[in-house]
Structure formats: C-alpha cells, structure tokens
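Aim 2 progress update. The chain analyzed this quarter is reproduced below.
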Amino acid sequence: MKYKRLVLLCLIMISLLPIISACGKEPEKTVETEFLMDTLMELTAYGPNGEKAIDAAMGRIKKIDDLMSVSSETGDVYKVNKSAGQNPVKVSDETMYVVQTAQHYSQLSDGAFDITVGPLVNLWGIGKKEEVPSQTAIDGAKALIDYRKLQIDVSSGTIGLPERNMSIDLGAIAKGYAGDEAARIFKEYGVKSGIISLGGNVVVVGARPDGNPWRVGIQNPFKPTGNYVAVVEETDKTVVTSGTYERYFIKDGKRYHHILDPSTGYPADNGLASVSIISDKSIDADALSTTVFLLGPEKGMELVEELSDVECIMITNDKKITVSSGLKDNINITDEEFIYEEGR
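Predicted structure tokens:
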C-alpha cells in the first residue's frame, strides 16, 4: 500500500473546459505538475494568487514526502523503522498526527487497515518486483504486523516498534494528509476555486469559477486511464479511489495488486475492483478507501453508513456499481456496461 498510487489517476476531472466569467474573460488560471510521493501531482488554481499558492503547496507536499516516505533517510518513518526493536524515535507533529489517525482506522477496522504492514509491502514489492513470495516468507512477514504493538507516546512525541524488522508504511494515508495541507494553503492564499490532483486523490477547493460544482469522473477499472464509469458533482470535497488496476503484475494468469490484506498476506481478493470515498477530509478518505476495500463489499459499506459525511462508490469485478445511501441522488452512471445497485 505504498504511496498509492504510482501509475493511474483513478479520478479524471472532466469539466476542465475554459470557464468564462460574467465579464466574458476566462479567470486567471495556474497549473503545475510534479512527480512526488510516487505519483504525478497536478495542482490547478484560479485567481491572482494561484502561482504563489501552488508553489507553497508543492513545497509543503515535498516536506511531507520527506517526513513520511519509507526511503527518505532524514524522515521520521525511515528513522522509526530503522530503530525497530530499539528505542522509540522523536517525530514531528505532522507524523504524529498521521500515525494517530492511522491507528484510529486500524482500531475501527479491527486491523484490516494496519500501518505496520511494512514487512508485507517490502516482501511483495509490487511495482518493483513481479514474483509471488513463498508461503514461508509471507507467514514471516505477517507475524511482524500488529498495529496494537505500535508504541505511540504523545506526551514525549515519540513512536516506536518493539520488535526488529517491524516497520510502518504510511502509503495508504500520507497522500491524503498532503491533499488536506495543499487545500489549506490554497485557502490561505485566497484561492476560492482550484483542483488538487495527487494521483488517485482529488481535492476540489470551492466550486468552479462559474459557481457550479466540479464534476469528477470515476475511473473505469477495466479500461485505460481517461475512461470513466460515473460522474459525481462536488464542492469543497475530496474523492479518493483505491483499485486493483493501479499497481499490479500478472503471474500464471492471476493478477496480484498492491492492496495487501494483513490477515492473509496476499492481495485482497473479495470481488472488488475499486472503492471511491467522498468526504470532507482527504486524510480520512485516503485511509477509508483502503480500509473499505479490505473489509469487502458488505462490511465495508456497513462501516461507511455508520460514518457521518462519508460516501462510497464500489465497483465489483463483475461490473456492478453500489453506492452509499447519501450518494444515490448525486451520481450519474455513464457506462452502460455497468449495473447500478443502490446500497441500503
């Protein structure tokens, strides 16, 4: 579940045609792209401070990447993992917040979401390797995964791992935090209309310059990027997708994707092709897209229905689309190959 997602943008912004203001002029628009957190990021801001806002937001994302990447030797996550089985490590307030949030979702899902999944992520190396590990190796990695053993001391600002070779991986949540921070910076600079696209994580700031909601397309998990199956209209929201098509390899006719189930040690195999979460905070949507995927169709949707201000779109391997109850009047299915089924 490393910084999801390296390859495909799960959400395609489909209403980015030039927008004409009341005075007949297109609002000032600034767009910048960079490759950070193992994915292509594109930030778009409308208004006179757009360039400054984007530069500041990109700088903030870089800092978060440095702090929370497993490979950044000066970062918190690297230091925590390197010190596994030794002493807890002093971390930044940002890392502490993200880890605490991750622990919340670990507890909420009874460990379906678990940031100590690092040993399993490293073993599979999906995106870097194309080999199925031995069952012995998988069992060894599974034995090192247990969020309940993670030592979090808020008063001292430290995080520790009690056993050697344990490791944390914030790939299923850190990008969501980066999206929230970028949106915060946009607003600090007075940007009232913008889009923050961080791979499979999209945050829409305000409405479109013409006052209408942004239209966000949900990627078809069975076709190349740019093919969408549904459209939702949102203002000041985040939409995050996790799917089996984002990073994977095929071995002996079987697809092995990057969403690893800590309980089995293998990629999740529950009939789901993708899960999209819509919420106010991207850090929550990021964690929940993975959590709900791992819980599966029934338990995952049950969890979403228990949460306030959270909606969900599930797409199954047999091309069925199910949405949470609060979304049924705000989704347009655009691909006739898919069967729409309302949630409870």
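The domain at 76-160 is CATH 1.10.3980.10 (T-fold). The CA atoms of residues 115 and 170 lie 6 Å apart. These observations will guide the mutagenesis experiments scheduled for the next reporting period.
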